[in-house]
Amino acid sequence: MTKVEDYIRTIADFPHEGIMFRDVTTLFADPRGFRMAIDQLLHPYAGLRFDKVVGLEARGFILGGAVAHQLSAGFVPVRKKGKLPGRVISESYTLEYGEAVVEVHDDALQPGEKVLIVDDLLATGGTAEAGIKLCERLGAEIIGCAFIVDLPDLGGRKRLEALGMEVHALCAYGGA
Questions:
Q1: Phi, psi (5° rounding) for residue 76?
Q2: Residue 114 has what pLDDT?
Q3: Are 105 and 84 in contact (CB under 8 A)?
Q4: Percent of the chain beyond pLDDT 70?
Q5: Which residues pair with 169 in a beta bridge?
Q6: How many CB atoms lie within 10 A of CB 170?
Q7: How many whole angstroms from its chain centre is CA 41?
Q8: Which residues are known to be catalytic?
Q9: 0.90 exceeded by the pTM?
Q10: 94 forms bridges with which residues in the sheet?
Q11: Which end of the chain has less Cβ packing within 10 Å, N or C?
Q12: Is the separation of the CB atoms in 172 and 151 below 8 Å?
């Protein structure tokens, strides 16, 4: 296997009929595939300084932790509502299958800190946009958004680029 997409399995009709689910757990399970993905996520940002990596729930935690380690940066989780203890700020958003709310600790980022947002998949961009808004509300400067998979037909990349974000994805799949 020579490309990241070689390690990603597709599961038809999950979680709903007509959806082709791109399952990155097979990528995570393979040491070479996982290493390749982390290295390729970092490549466009070589030489840039980051204070924090922000991982979006839940697979973004796996990727974000590994990326933060490689960058010698801190890691900040953006979690589903009600999962973080202490004081948080919240952002609601629409996703492919409904609505949700994500939160971050109100002291997780400091004004001027440079951050990279990481997640496994970019679909409609709702989760990523909510994460961006949370980071910006705390005064952080977002240097980029990195994903394993982009589903361009769902418009997430265009949505994030319209916000002025640099988007990096390792592979793309057409359709839903």
A1: -125, 120
A2: 98
A3: yes
A4: 98
A5: 147
A6: 19
A7: 11
A8: 59, 96
A9: yes
A10: 99
A11: N
A12: yes
Scan for tokens 């960058």, then name that residue: 71
Antiparallel, parallel or unpaired: β 98-105 and 141-150: unpaired
Question: Tokens 């793309």 label which residue?
Answer: 172
Q: What is the pLDDT of residue 53?
A: 98
Tokens of 109: 């980022």
Alpha-carbon distances, residue 118 vs 2, 12, 86, 87, 152 (angstroms)? 22, 25, 23, 23, 17
CA-based nearest residue to 170, from 114, 108, 98, 118: 118
